[in-house]
Write a structure and sequence with these properties.
five-stranded parallel β-sheet; Rossmann fold; about 375 residues; five-stranded mixed β-sheet; 12 helices; alpha/beta; 14 strands; about 35% helix; 3 domains
Length: about 375
Amino acid sequence: IAFVQDVISGAKSATSLTDANYDGKIDEGDIEQIEQILNGTEKEITILDSANRTVTIKEPVNKIAVYGNEPADALRILGAEDKVIGVENNLEKKAFFPEYRNLSTIGGWDADYEALLSLKPDLVIAYAAQEIDDKKLPGITVLHFDFYKARNTFKEIKTLGVVLGKEKEAQEYIDFCDEIIDEVRGKVDSLPDDQRARVYIETADPYVTHTSNGATGYQIELAGGRNMAADLAGSATGWVEVDAEWVVKEDPQVIVKMAGWNRGNISSGYETSDTGDVQKVWDEIRNRPELAKIKAIQDNRVHVISFDVTYNPDFIISVAYMVKWFYPDLFRDMDPVAIHQEFIDKFHKQLKWNVTKEGVFVYPPLAS
């Protein structure tokens, strides 16, 4: 409030967050809006979502329909899973979301408008690139968030926390992640470029990788690696198709291959405790004849990681594994499995999941 007062008086310059009520001007109305948010008495709140849309939401939000694993994950991190009344097709079947098992489904990438109108949620959360026609949903507010691009996750979870009155929970999540990020940066930030691990990350599809805008691009950056595809021109969601010749030319020191996500009937993550599928993925990429001479293959630095710990707000688990793979000597004392368990116990405690006994999140397993 004091900062906004200084902006009004001319003592300080406005930021993108100063216009709290999004009316295009900085005045006493913004101070009033901030006071209402702090007191929990606001009747509506206006935010900028990840599709760059200015959206006004009526408060309080009690019923939510959600598309995608990642936003559903974020809702649980915020302690708002009890507000969910409808989920994307197949989400109700996932082992990671037992609380959604008996909920109504609302379609997939193509929204089921009839189902949404029948449920009458206060709020629909969808991906930024997902097209939902608000005009077909009178009286229902639609927000677009991703929660799979680590670079934007803190901002998104803060914003959703404000919308749901879960600011404290959002900050607890950010603080947890920041503590690990600070530890990593304290060791990797001083590394010169020629000492940073050169990394090729491959999605579940062969020779499809992520740019700096992709889900894992920022994770590699946080872990101190050099993403070979960082500067390539990719899709809006950050993926780009390359070929074997490109990978050979780049000659990565480390290969990280993602597994699961309904590609090739591969089970990983929370869906299975059988390593058979991820071992097949590992064997396949290691045995591609066209890659036989690259450094990562020669040095046996090929790792498989499940989408369940990369493509969601749980990305800090992926970062912990990556630094262990990129710089095993530098991070000899870091324990990604313990970090994973602590994250589950803190933000997904209702799962009562033991990550050392259940699930397949990386392959080969870390040496104990």
